Amino acid sequence: MHGTRGLTGQNDAVSTDTARVDTFPKLLLRNARKFSGRTAYRHKDLGVWQSWTWPQVLDEVRAFSVGLSQLGLKRNDKVAVIGSNRPRLYWAMCAAQALGAVPVPIYADSVAEEMAYILDHAEVTLAVVEDQEQVDKLLSISDRLNRLSHIVYDEARGLRDYDHTRLSWIDDVQKLGRERLAADAACAAWWESSIEAGNGSDLAIMLYTSGTTGRPKGVMLTHENLIVSAINGNRFDNLGPNEQVIAYLPLAWVGDHVFSYAQPFTAGFCVNCPESPETVAEDRREIGTTYAFAPPRIYENLLTQTMVRMEDAGRVKREMFHYFIRLARRWGEKILNRERVPLHARLLYGLGELLVYGPLKNRLGVSKVRLAYTAGEAIGPEIFRFWRSLGVNLKQLYGQTEASVYITAQPDGEIFAETVGKPNIDVEIQIAENGEVLFKSPGVFVGYYKDPEKTAEAKTPDGWVHTGDAGLICPKTGHLKIIDRAKDVGRLNDGTLFAPKYIENKLKFYPNIREAVVFGHGRDSVCAMLNIDLVAVGNWAERNNVVYGSYQELAGHPLVYDMLREHVDEVNRSLAEEEAMAGAQIRRFLILHKELDADDGELTRTLKVRRSFIAERYAPLISALYGGANEADISTEVTFEDGRKGTLSARIKIRDLAPHPVRGVDMRKAA
Amino acid sequence: MLGPFLETLIGGLLTGVLYSLVALGFVLIFKASGVFNFAQGAMVLFAALSFARLAEFMPLPLALLLAIVVMVALAYAVEFLVLRRLVNQEGIILFMATLGIAYFLEGFGQTVWGSDIYKIRLGLPTNPIFLFESVFPGGILIDPSELIAATICGLLVLVLALFFQVTRVGRALRAVADDHQAAQSVGIPLNQIWLVVWAVAGLVALVAGMMWGTKLGVQFSLSLVALKALPVLILGGFTSIPGAIVGGLIIGAGEKLAEVMLAPVLIRTFDLAGGGIENWFAYVLALVFLLFRPQGLFGERIIERV
Amino acid sequence: MRAPSAQDVAAGELLLSVENVSLAFGGVKAITNVSFDIRRGEIRAIIGPNGAGKTSMLNVINGFYNPQRGKITFKGRTRTRMRPYEAARGGIARTFQNVALFKGMTTLDNIMAGRTLKMQRGFFWQVLRVGPALTEEVEQRRIVEEIIDFLKIQHIRKVPVGKLPYGLQKRVELARALAMEPDLLLLDEPMAGMNLEEKEDMCRFILDVNDQYGTTIALIEHDMGVVMDLSNRVLVLDHGIKIADGVPATVQADATVIDAYLGVGH
Fold first, then answer.
1. Strand partners for A245
2. A407 pLDDT exceeds 50?
């Protein structure tokens, strides 16, 4: 009977009682009752894991919150939260929300100037920060922030001798709160009534997004936005109170706010805060997290580290590793997807689990991970598949701050490396005329703080939000595929969608191609300029006895042209498989005689191609590509390593390709 | 064929354990003070002599206790009279000092305890055990006293490893082994550490001496055991405790196998006089190692893991 | 940065005084008739060109060298000969110019080795790891963990220090010295071989140690900017002779100091 009650209780956590329990402080009160024996937070400090149950968290937050109100914090005030993932900074958010104030997390590594802008724009009156470093930053700009009246810090080291008239240690704030609670019996009731006064439609948090251009914008999200999205996320992946997550991503990132705050509050699972940013891997292993999330970069780094370590290992170990990794690449993903796999492969894979995958996963701290998400940007298909082949259920998620994270995600068993999955529960998506992905969901943000103009740009009157990303929906699977930034997507003269970065990435997937620039917007067809990768092609030349004297000579070698032509042809074939892209196949290409270089202004300092600059600089080549000539002369000014300038001339050949027939249609017929 | 092979192998391994024990004494002192203690062999002889002669007058446990006292006193004397005065001297000078100690101990031991061959009787069972009689014709013969000796040695090694790894003194010893100056600067007194190391080396010598003495009788040639420890050290690495153990086992088993398996073949093939392989096999093996892997099996990389 | 002012320190209690110390190796004079003092709570810099006798001075203070002449009074007790471990017992900790760590041991074990003098329980209990020894081990471990936290080296707790990059090794060495809870901390070029960021971190740690634990610090440093930022008083040596002694601003303006650093007739 007890079991049955527990079960309904959980269902109730997931859906029905959100009508009432519609803010985070209310969820805290509920969790303290419902999950009274469960651990809510852990923090490794001085080498030991400290832990707090939900009732203990309630006690801490209550004291903190009452203390903050003693410091003068009121409804609708904005509270900056700056620092790494520590329990007390998460509690600060809840403590502020209990008073109706709105937390504004800020990236802890921002410089004082960046912080000054956000603190000023958000009209922050109180800041809760991690340590002396952050206090120093705020003090250095405090003369410009006349609204900021108080700073509260978590870590007291080095701050003892500071002037404490407008500065307090969290312990002292909590003491203030506890004294007040002890002195005034009505205070606890007052505090709970303050929570009751809150509504789901109240502002829960403001997250400033560091847009690629212009000033950061303050995305306003309500309690309901976050709570409904989190509950839907929990349902989508069947997350319950037994999950363990490690909180290590910036507090100001919407991902962290949902994964380490909204989801644990709604599902009742435990958030583990690492000892320091450097110990995350070890701490993760100690805790045995079951639910993980990271930007692709982290999965990539872990893979690279593993590979490097293996190259240093003894021969037997190394060969064993490579053998089983090959085996995993072949069968692992099929096994994870519960496809049919021959018995011998299954047995060998089992042996691999024992000898390689198991120990490796343990080392990486993912042994117990039931579900891992990658989000934030596109993950390389190789890296994605590597993790899945080890038996880690890594999935892709597509989300935005403006959506309270969830737009689409890959459901279990429907994993395609190149898509980002299906719309989450209650989310609708559509593709606009220009290819841009639009969505509508319960998590859609209220607006940008104090910026109705930008809000109107992003959000249509009937509630659709522009993601700024161009995408298409795979006809076969119904999954969303993101192809480019919407503003970069153009059209050929016949109206075909032209997504340059998408095509370029496909080209750059080949190790022989270092850089690719494709043209097509406002033209009749797609043409490409390629850069060879000197290391890869140089190796190939050595193996095949191709003699060359310079980069220019190698780049112009007919055999190299043949090889790259095959790559381009393969890219065309894959483009032909997608109806919307089939018209954008590459019809002509050339190989540049020099590497595109940031020193020559062809690349940005972050090594992104500057397409329009290149089009201008290599205008003769462009006109040859589109004029039908078989070769063209080019002469450019270059900057050498030592800073000298010179001119580089070359005659460059152009190759043609025949387009593949559109295959997408056939596939559907066959199916 | 397999039966005799196994029998030889096991016999060799049991002898090897004793080699290990002697080599261990070397390693301990070398690690902690960088001194190659040439006197380790003489210490084995001295310890065995002391024990054998004392055991003639008193019950074994008391003799053992007194022998331990003698070895600790010896360590104290060495530290106080020799090492303390040679702090910061070159390695070669310290080596010469241990050479002096070695000859002094050999002579002094005989002066005090006499120079005959003395028997140590520990009352260990001597009836051979036969194993796997059902598998091999005649089974495998094992001398139980050797088995017991090996077990005792194994236990000693385990205790030492534990001592090094988990105790404060062990940590201090490792610290001294790593960096003398730094160890002094955190307040580890070098003299006391040396005292401890020499005492431990003395105890190890006592156990080794007792075991060898039981087997061969206590006589002057016991000090030559030290020379057998040299190839063991070269195989295992001078600074590695696991190296000393594994090296001892390899040499022990290797020379027995060479004597029993290789010698007849050599004699038949080349019409040699035969015999004596046991005497030089270890050194040739060491030579091969010096040529191809001079840092030993457990080179510097293992040094930290005692 | 915020080291206590010179006035605060001048009033401070005398911790160490060096009087007319001379040290020679064979015929070579390393230190000639140098006198100076260190007061409780101050950060005292010792600077000078290469071969000025700075490291020799530290070695004299912590007993690696015994001077031929002169006397040293530490915490009111004068001594002529002293062994390094006696200096350690007396409350002097130090780090070395070229990092002298126990390379085969982990960070944790290195710092625990710094607690050697603070552990009292007998050897027997130590071996068994029970009873009072266990409680003591736990207590010692707690103090060590605080230092680990203080110097932000949690992530390398279990790494053998030989495998660490140089900058981190220097930090572990500082941690080991701090574990001794010294009255006087001698730092021999704590920032040598570090990049700018590591230097800034180390500066901050040194100030924090001084601030938080009230540890008196004597440090040798080449970077004049660092010396000016960190120290309350500066002692300048050249060829084993004291050529200046005072607050940073005075010393910096001193003509002999400029000569010693830049050569006469600049």
1. A271
2. yes
How far is A618 from A531, CA to CA, in rounded Å? 14
- Cα angle value B281/B283/B289 (rounded, 5°): 110
Give the N- to C-terminal CA distance of chain B in Å, as an integer. 38
What pLDDT digit, counting tens, does each position of C26-66 carry? 888 899 999 999 999 999 999 988 888 899 999 999 888 88
How far apart are the CA of A84 and the nearest CA of chain C, in angstroms? 14
Chain C residue at shortest CA distance from B163: C127
Contact predicate C253/C263, CB 8 Å: no
> Percent of chain A at pLDDT above 70?
95
User: In angstroms, how far is CA C85 from the centroid of its own chain?
Assistant: 15
Interface contact flag, C148 A45, Cβ < 8 Å: no
Cβ(A589)–Cβ(A568) below 8 Å: yes
- Say if the Cβ atoms of C102 and B169 lie within 8 Å: no
- Residue A277 C-alpha, separation from nearest chain C C-alpha, in angstroms: 9
Average pLDDT score over chain C: 84
Q: Do A158 and C208 touch (CB under 8 A)?
A: yes
Which residue of chain B has the CA closest to C125?
A: B167
A163 shares contact with chain C (CB less than 8 Å): no
pLDDT in tens, B254-273: 888 888 877 777 777 777 76
Q: What is the mean pLDDT of residues A91-110?
A: 96
Instruction: Give the residue numbers in B contacting C (CB under 8 Å), as ranges.
Output: 162-163, 166-169, 171-172, 174-175, 177-179, 181-190, 303-305
Q: What is the pLDDT of residue C20?
A: 92
Pairing state of beta strands A39-45 and A270-273?
parallel
Q: Which residues pair with C186 in a beta bridge?
A: C94, C218
A140 touches chain C (CB under 8 A): no
CB B129 within 8 A of CB B144: yes
pLDDT of residue A604 exceeding 90: no
Looking at the whole model, is its pTM more than 0.80?
no
pLDDT digits (tens, 9 = 90+) for A273-324: 999 988 998 899 899 999 999 888 888 888 888 887 887 777 888 899 999 9
Pairwise CA distance, residues A342 & C68, whole Å: 84
Alpha-carbon gap, residue A386 to A330, rounded angstroms:
10
Contact A432, A473 (CB under 8 A): no
From chain B, the residues in CB contact with C55 under 8 A are none
CA distance A404 to A444: 7
Structure tokens at B128: 């051979």
Residue among A157, A276, A279 whose CB faces C208 most closely: A157
pLDDT band with cut points at 50, 70 and 90 for residue C184: very high
SS (H, E, C) A455-467: HHHHECCCCCEEE
Q: Inter-chain contact C113–B175, Cβ cutoff 8 Å?
A: yes
The least confident of A29-33, A148-152, A512-516 is: A512-516
From the list C130, C105, C100, C145, the residue with the least C-alpha distance to B165 is: C105
Mean pLDDT of the A65-90 span: 96
- Distance of alpha carbon A29 from alpha carbon A97, whole angstroms: 13
User: What tokens appear for A582 in the block?
Assistant: 């089939």
Strands A244-246 and A270-273: parallel
Q: Please give the ipTM for the structure prediction.
A: 0.81
With CA atoms as reference, report the closest residue to B27 among B298, B252, B293, B243: B243
Q: Which residues of B touch C139 (CB under 8 A)?
A: none
Cα–Cα distance, C141 to B164 (Å, whole number): 18
Q: Is the pLDDT of residue A123 over 60?
A: yes
Joined together, the tokens standing for residue A483 give 């192809």
| H or E element in which residue C17 lies | strand C14-25
State residue A289's pLDDT score.
93
Q: Report CB contact under 8 Å: C154, A160.
A: no
Report the SS3 class of residue C263: coil
